[in-house]
Amino acid sequence: MDMVMKLGMEKAVVVFSKTSCGISHAISTLIRGFGANPTVHELDELPNGHEIEKALMALGCNPSVPAVFIGKEFIGGSNEIMSLNIRGKLKPLLLKANAIWI
């Protein structure tokens, strides 16, 4: 789990994904739509991807992807990101994390 937290804190926005996951792609696209440039870790392309996936599930991600960190904090998966967006709270969170500017 330490590796996941370390990777999640590398940049303003970090998304753990799989190349075959359409929802992960949609979440990354949503975040990019605000002008942010998320770091995306494709678990199925990483040699230790299976270990990272287990750690994400231990954090409460079920399914394991997408898993999103914003501002060095674990936010959650697609449900949490979509909920923040619908409530108008995703953009302010990206602003606070300096992932986007006005």
UniProtKB/TrEMBL annotation:
Origin: domain of life: Eukaryota
Keywords per UniProt: Cytoplasm, Redox-active center
Cellular component, GO annotation: cytoplasm
Keyword GTP-binding among record annotations: no
Pfam families linked: Glutaredoxin
Glutaredoxin domain mapped to chain residues: 13-75
PROSITE patterns associated with the record: GLUTAREDOXIN_2 (PS51354)
Keyword Cytoplasm attached: yes
Compartments, as annotated in UniProt: Cytoplasm
UniProt xrefs under PANTHER family: GLUTAREDOXIN
Family: Belongs to the glutaredoxin family. CC-type subfamily.
Entry protein name: Monothiol glutaredoxin-S2-like
Species for this entry: Sesamum indicum (Oriental sesame)
